[in-house]
Design a protein that fits this description.
Elements (H helix, E strand, L loop, with lengths): L3 E4 L5 H8 L3 E3 L9 H8 L4 E4 L7 H6 L5 E4 L9 H6 L3 E3 L6 H16 L2 H9 L2 H5 L14 E5 L3 H14 L2 E5 L6 H7 L2 E2 L2 H7 L2 E4 L13 H6 L5 E4 L8 H10 L4 E4 L10 H4 L4 E3 L8 H18 L26
Parallel strand pairs: 1-2, 1-3, 3-4, 4-5, 6-7, 6-9, 7-8, 9-10, 10-11, 11-12
Helix pairs in contact: 1-14, 5-8
Bound molecules: (2R)-2,3-dihydroxypropanoic acid.
Length: 336
């Protein structure tokens, strides 16, 4: 008898169909957003799951779903999953790194440019017919991007891909803050300079946040940090809601404490703080950093490959390509 697996969100049917070659598959073609209790109910009898950031996988769920062996999360981030709880129970967690690096870096860079050059605000201006009545030489002046200082908080794969775009494409000076500085030969590729967080805040013309969400990065950018930034600066968050204090940001944007912001992720998303919705100098997008056709398909395919391998079938049986807690498989984790 084939094992049963669950796919919690709708994505690409042809990719999900690959699971049907090996397993009994239950899915969610209408893409209903399940509560955790509904998810628990649907996971009964399931040995594996393809999950997404909207699914909370914690000790409560794992204890209620004792047959579950593998959780294959679509996304490089997995702050929706309690990794320790999975590991303690021998449940494998996988994610989808690498395949989204360049697409997400493109988007982050674009969002920063949109904020700096007031692109969406200008679009609203044209659509409202205001160009015809109030167009002036000095209308909608923004800040330059080329030749300015790009600050990056979190210099992992995506942070480095953004640094590359800024340094090599736009002649930007790159400064960054990270848990650990990069090796000098990697810094040299982008002319990137490690600085303390306070210096990053003070010196950046355009600050992009790419740090993973954890208890220690919660509100890494709050009122005190925003106060240190230049009034001409922009802030872009493509990391996770909660890394930036959205309420504090809305206040600073309203008061002109910084020039503009670009946000793809929000505290409590898909809800967006009402004060942010009321700000004109913020570009808001619905967590689509990795949303190109090619990349979203690659992410779905990688999660399917992970699940097939985690369940001990297919060409990589027992060796899922991108495990988060490989110790469950008896493999030592790679140092962070
Ligand atoms: C990721 O991969 O973590 C993206 O933010 C999509 O969730």
């Amino acid at each position: 008898m084939s094992a049963s697996v669950l796919v919690t969100r709708a994505s690409f049917p042809d990719i999900i169909d690959r699971l049907r070659e090996h397993f009994d598959v239950a899915d969610n073609p209408s893409d209903t957003l399940w509560t955790q209790d509904e998810l628990i109910e649907r996971l009964q009898g399931k040995e594996g799951a393809v999950t997404a950031g909207s699914d909370r996988i914690d000790a409560r769920l794992l204890d209620a779903c004792p047959m579950l062996k593998a959780v294959c999360n679509i996304g490089v981030g997995y702050n929706n999953v309690d990794v320790a709880a999975c590991t303690e129970r021998g449940v494998l967690l996988t994610n989808t790194p690498d395949v989204l690096t360049n697409t997400t870096a493109d988007f982050g860079f674009g969002l920063m440019m949109a904020a700096a050059r007031r692109i969406t605000e200008s679009e609203r201006f044209v659509r409202a017919g205001k160009w015809v009545t109030t167009g002036r030489f000095d209308m909608l002046l923004g800040g330059d991007v080329h030749g300015t200082t790009l600050g990056i908080l979190g210099m992992g794969r995506i942070g480095q891909a953004i640094a590359k775009r800024g340094a090599l494409g736009f002649g930007m000076k790159v400064i960054y803050h990270n848990r650990t500085p990069l090796a000098p030969e990697i810094e040299a590729q982008y002319g990137a300079r490690y600085v303390e967080k306070d210096a990053l805040l003070r010196e950046s013309d355009h600050l992009i946040v790419v740090v993973p969400y954890s208890a220690s990065s919660h509100h890494a950018i709050g009122a005190a940090e925003l106060k240190q930034m230049k009034s001409s600066a922009t802030l872009t968050n493509i990391a996770r809601g909660g890394v930036v204090d959205d309420a504090a940001l809305a206040t600073v944007l309203k008061e002109g404490g910084i020039a503009a912001a670009g946000l793809d992720v929000f505290e409590g998303e898909p809800q967006v703080h009402a004060e942010l919705l009321a700000c004109t100098n913020v570009v808001l997008t619905p967590h689509i950093g990795s949303a190109s056709v090619t990349t979203r398909r690659a992410m779905a395919a990688l999660s399917v490959d992970n699940l097939i391998a985690a369940m001990g079938v297919g060409p990589n049986a027992g060796k899922p390509p991108t495990p988060v807690n490989p110790q469950v498989l008896g493999v030592a984790p790679t140092p962070a």
